[in-house]
Specification:
268 residues, 44% helix, single chain, 12 helices, alpha/beta, 8-stranded parallel beta barrel
Length: 268
């Protein structure tokens, strides 16, 4: 695990330890299933990036930003909830989910304990991101089971061949294979090196031949419709886009253009 991931894991574990018991009666917010097309965008809301600094001011209206993403046709909204390096909070996710009852919202964080999956569901999340490199096989299984028990989707993020192979092994389990076929288990490849925080864009193409028969997500570094078309050509059926959308003057238009370019590339 890289230094940055280790730091995030330590801080996340501290937050998890401070989380009180969550009862089943608290997990009653509406669950919104993913509705996936030929090529889709998971549009991200974050106030800060460790690599790029502030992406928005203190006056950022996350609900308004999410509405713009939804207008562009985003399949889901990713909300950063990590507080120390991304200026995130669970309250941000809760506000976005409440403002968009028809769009699934995903918690993006450095989750290390099953209780944090329940915490996300309590706040209204319909999905969570899990980072393979941060989790042992047993802990990963426990967190997947926690999400699937409550009907949530999971984006399972890989950084390298080893991470991707661990994700692919999961698909040998018939239940997980069925979830992947239904779009409830997404396999992601992140181009960001979490030691240096640099983006290695070539990773998406290099790992493309290893992608499983599942909905796969290209993460980090995508900025334009041409980028979306490129990853669609390599076999990815979704892209997670954050910084470019946070800096865009027309985020709805950028979501729309990226979806259209990726879909056109798939159809070509």
């Amino acid at each position: 695990m890289s230094d940055f991931l280790q730091q995030m894991a330590t801080l996340s574990a501290e937050r998890a330890a401070a989380t009180g018991r969550i009862s089943a009666s608290e997990l009653d917010k509406p669950l919104v299933p993913l509705q996936l097309g030929v090529f889709d965008i998971i549009a991200e809301i974050k106030g800060r990036s460790p690599a790029e600094g502030a992406l928005a001011g203190a006056d950022l209206d996350r609900r308004e930003q999410a509405q713009l993403y939804a207008q562009g046709g985003a399949a889901a909204i990713s909300v950063l909830t990590e507080p120390s390096r991304f200026d995130g909070a669970l309250e941000h996710l809760e506000a976005v989910a409440a403002s968009l009852p028809g769009t699934p919202v995903m918690r993006k964080d450095f989750l290390v304990e099953p209780v944090q999956v329940l915490e996300a569901r309590k706040a209204g999340a319909s999905g969570v991101l899990l980072i393979t490199a941060m989790l042992s096989d047993d802990k990963l299984r426990a967190m997947l089971d926690a999400a699937f028990e409550f009907g949530m989707f999971v984006l399972l993020e890989a950084f390298d061949e080893n991470d991707l192979s661990r994700s692919i092994v999961l698909l040998e389990n018939p239940a997980d294979r069925d979830r992947a076929a239904a779009g409830n288990l997404l396999i992601g490849v992140n181009t960001r090196n979490l030691r240096t925080l640099d983006v290695h864009a070539a990773r998406l193409q290099r790992l493309a031949p290893l992608l499983p028969d599942a909905r796969c997500v290209a993460e980090s570094g995508l900025k334009t419709a041409d980028d979306a078309a490129a990853v669609a050509g390599w076999g990815y059926s979704l892209a997670l886009v954050g910084s470019a959308l946070m800096r865009s003057k027309d985020p709805a238009g950028l979501v729309r253009d990226m979806r259209a370019a990726g879909s056109a590339r798939v159809a070509a």
